[in-house]
Amino acid sequence: MEKQQRLPVKRKYAQDWAKYNLAKTNEKRLFYELLRDLSKIIKEPRYEFGRPPIPIKDLFFSAGLKLYSNYSGRKVISDIKLARDAGYISQSLHYNTLTEFLGCPATYDLLQKLLIISAMPLKKLENKFSMDASGFGSYQHEKWHTVKWGKKGNHKDYVKGHIIIGTKTNVICSAEVTYGTLSDVKQAPALLKKAGVNFNMEEVSADKAYGSKLVYRIIKSIGAIPYIPFKHNTKEPTENSPEIWNKMFLYFRDHREDWEDHYHKRSNVETVFSMVKLRLGEYLRCKTYTAQRNELLMKFICHNICCLIQEIYERNLHIDFKRCLQLFIDQKVENPYPDGALGKY
To answer: How far apart are CA 316 and CA 261, in angstroms?
Structure first.
């Protein structure tokens, strides 16, 4: 009796490839539109006398176009002129003007706010977050990979991007850019402060570099649960240790499999760094430290816009940056932690 031939089982994918294809084939067009909409919420300084300055909206849009295309300042001028003719900006600019915008210290604060606002349309989709840091080199020096794992290079020639991301959409919710020599854990309070105010954080996962009692206290104070692995030489819980520290240590020790299910989401932050470096380049073109910080923040904003485009097709998402701006303004960003929440550490 002949064996009955089985038909091959059709593999099922979690990704809806039809929507994915639509997002990618329309990405560049929608990137222009969302970048313009985001630039519209920028408030221009009051003009009093002298030569009229170039609008900050145009500078921001042009910088985003430069970083998205991964071109040098000179080569992106043609795209900027096309954007002007299409009505996305009011006037084109010289590439030196674009360099000056990225080299201005005040640009960093502006880009940090716009980065948070660019992530806020996905606020309702995210409740689990992860944080980490990665280095970005420049064309004048070796790759960050060589500095980290090789014998050549110097950390002072690199900047490090510290980010918190939502693990469902991979959007960057807050970021800091520092020298490559600064430790990851020192940037965690500032990252958690900004993300905790603007997003509903239920879980935060991170690697051992963030295994500080202060970080545990901050995560607890914003209503989230920390999933950070303990080092092998960590001492047993004591009465002097924070309650959240002792609780998570016992959970880590006695329920490792369940703990790993939550901690596994941390791999998404590695995916985000890979997405930024592959899509927007692992090098920084600017030469000064101030300009490199702004350039990297602008790359993070471009990444967020690409995440928004994907969600527009995946979930029929409507983007309203003006409403996000109002929500951002209404938040109490000065002191999000209750008095005495952090205690001693």
So the answer is: 29
